[in-house]
């Protein structure tokens, strides 16, 4: 059987304000802050991870909040829109919630599905769709009960500078199945139940540039370390030049830039976020890799304080 990814492992984006990001992704969307750590390559900056109760692959959105980051431009070479899946029957709840919180949204249709489209405080494009597949959330926070909560990623819309080449990569290398085309998009489906539906622009579009309000990379799932090494070999055989395997504490990673300009990562499902924290306390403390622990005092002094808090509108 040909090697296939189950779908998205995580998506990582640039934002400006750490507390504003926590308030939006935990306060508004009801996701759990599952890890509070730092950018291992720039320890003066947080790396914040949000997801389901355990931070399961297929649910994880991560952020680098750079306070003085330039404003990015969404365009080709990026993930254009991040899609979240909610249970069937929860669409009306999310319409009411966004209205209550005065977050403008647009109702759209694509591939016979209805979407709520809106943006976060930095302009990242988000959409919510009802999907039957995927385990229901066991996490509730603020005004979002578990039975209405986001289950994880529905998928993503990729903005490619070379759509035909990106499509071939998704099918022939990553193992996704082409579902069809509609309007400006082609749809591809991975084998998993979350983070598995990927739409790609058919026509080329202007290139974007990185900065606050843009996605840095999209990561795909590898089942374990052995599968991960097989993925690296497969990527090399296909003509790309992936990085060596990099230890990211909670998963191992390789990176390569595909022909449409999008930075792809392949990340292992294990070991997960409970390797250095009790599952009941995920995200409550600043976690550092061992090689930076001796610099903890300096690192903490340079990071702005953040807290997960219930929105005022949900406290009334």
Description:
This protein is an alpha+beta fold. The chain has a single domain, classed as Roll (2,3-Dihydroxybiphenyl 1,2-Dioxygenase, domain 1). The protein is built from 6 helices and 16 strands. The chain has an 8-stranded mixed sheet with strand order 2-3-4-1-13-16-15-14. Strand 2 and strand 3 form a beta hairpin. The longest helix has 13 residues. It starts with 7 loop residues before the first strand and ends with a helix. InterPro entries: Extradiol_RC_dioxygenase, Glyas_Bleomycin-R_OHBP_Dase, Glyas_Fos-R_dOase_dom, VOC_core. Keywords: Dioxygenase, Oxidoreductase.
Tally the structural domains: 1
Structural class, judged by helices and strands?
alpha+beta
- For this structure, the CATH topology is 2,3-Dihydroxybiphenyl 1,2-Dioxygenase, domain 1
Could you name the CATH homologous superfamily?
A: 2,3-Dihydroxybiphenyl 1,2-Dioxygenase, domain 1
Distance between the ends:
55 Å
Keywords: Dioxygenase, Oxidoreductase
Protein name: Ring-cleaving dioxygenase
Organism: Paenibacillus solisilvae
GO molecular function: dioxygenase activity
